[in-house]
Amino acid sequence: MSAHRPSVVIVGAGPRGSGLIERIAANAPELYAASGLDLHLVDPHPPGAGRIWRAAQSPLLWMNSHAEDVTMFTDETVTMHGPVAEGPTLHEWAGIDGRTFADRQLQGAYLRWFHERAVAALPPSVTVHHHPRRALRVSGPREGRQQVWLEGRPRPLPADLVVLALGHLDAELDPDQDELAVYARAHGLVHLPPDFTADSDLSPLAPGEPVLVRGFGLAFVDLMVLLTEGRGGRYEGDTYVPSGREPVLYVGSRRGVPYHSKIGYDWTGDRPPLPRFLGPAEVEALLARPEGFDFRRDVWPLVEKELGFAHYHRLFTVHPERTAVDWSVFEEKYAATDDPAGRAALVVSAVPDPADRLDLAVLDRPLEGVRYGSFDEFQEGLRGYVERDLSRSHDPAYSPDLAVFLGLLSVYGQLVRLGDIGPWWHGFFSYLASGPPGPRLRQMLALSRAGVLKFLGADLTVTAEGGVFRASSPTVPGFSVEARTLVEARLPEPTVGRARDPLLRSLHADGAAETPEGLLRVDPADGRILDRAGRPHPRRFALGPYTDARTPGAFTRPRTGGPAFRQNDATARATVLFLRELTGRAAA
């Protein structure tokens, strides 16, 4: 490799790394006319699919979105400086029904194809090298070439720029999890800490034995599938036929209910004009506050108003027979009212049926203050809750719910610019906007009726005492269940301090800044890593869920703005412009 040939190292060759390559290829014709470039991809997993979407996982595991709602390509809705380069969605590429929930192996094939296409679109003078290893650390002066040290390789990779495009990270146990793990070892129990479910060893979960599960989101759905169909059970219509090798799953969480079902109908008509009350101007005003801002006090009221606007715009314009005033009248009063109590009174006067009103507090905590007289009564009650959610999510008469989903996407695209706003918002977004496919909830109901799945309730408490784990919830006062196995059904928190990734930890030790929530701080303009004095590193970038600019995902629904695409484009352009200046100086 010539001393004058520029080199970029991208750590992480999954969908985020591939998306960055696609943006480098799209921007290079305009910004980079130099004679060559080496792109080094460092990832022990295959490029494109990466760890999460690799081929080597159960075909029973599905994507969480309809195939028509998955794309790796930019479109005119993405706010960016680079050129749009459109391409097929997953369903168009695979030739499958757009309403299909494809398995993750098929998504992995789509991502591998996308990666190969992105590499092929690079200028001929760009050479791509894949290193199937882990990156251990980065060294080098701020103003000079960097060295990326790889596992099992004695000499480092030289890099003019380094981009971390890491995905979900493994983490060391937090104090509470560590205490449970120590207790489990001391008493011969099974404790599975937070993990990507497809990587968990589920073999210790014995047939017929009770298993406590804390977490009712997507990680639980994967666990449910692998321990039922994955062990030979099958569905005959709405009935589950056990194989006899299933454990009995007792599941609870903070909310005590599963994530909301994916919407099961298509959008028709005009979309709500978003953003309306939380757009770039409002974000700039929040960022300009010298005293800073508080999420609950300053941001959440704007989110509530924006989501309410999306909901009522759809209700009044498509279902006017269910409203008491004209949309123009309601909209004017709604826009002028900043007091939540005043808006609530306006809604009550204009929307007669409570089922047509948006109540985010009830949506967030449906079991708040709810008590059941017996465990069996609660099983029936929660099955009814899931059935109602399924019915509503598949009924276009309630299409304001889909408008709220679009509002959530719009809000997320704005909030990503605010940096680390705490974990609550991301959990709330996932609960409402990124729930399981409807068929998974129907399977959940069948498993409940078969006695394989049992619901514990909200505000779940798990204790380790008497040589076992014990779980209880105020939803069913006086009831508790004990088991010798506890599974934490959720991903590890993406904190810098506890990340097992040696590269991230070394960057942190080297002075990279973290937020109070433990996320890596980056410049929102282009993803450069910030040090503890707030200075962006001229040669180091980071993209992904472990940063304070985390987005809903590396790919997105078409024509929804794709904040990850916007970030990829900004980082790609910063990369190419830096290299152009570098080669210009060398030529001079």
From TrEMBL:
<dbReference type="InterPro" id="IPR038732">
    <property type="entry name" value="HpyO/CreE_NAD-binding"/>
</dbReference>
<dbReference type="InterPro" id="IPR036188">
    <property type="entry name" value="FAD/NAD-bd_sf"/>
</dbReference>
<feature type="region of interest" description="Disordered">
    <location>
        <begin position="529"/>
        <end position="566"/>
    </location>
</feature>
<dbReference type="InterPro" id="IPR052189">
    <property type="entry name" value="L-asp_N-monooxygenase_NS-form"/>
</dbReference>
<protein>
    <submittedName>
        <fullName>FAD/NAD(P)-binding protein</fullName>
    </submittedName>
</protein>
<feature type="domain" description="FAD-dependent urate hydroxylase HpyO/Asp monooxygenase CreE-like FAD/NAD(P)-binding">
    <location>
        <begin position="9"/>
        <end position="168"/>
    </location>
</feature>
<dbReference type="Pfam" id="PF13454">
    <property type="entry name" value="NAD_binding_9"/>
</dbReference>
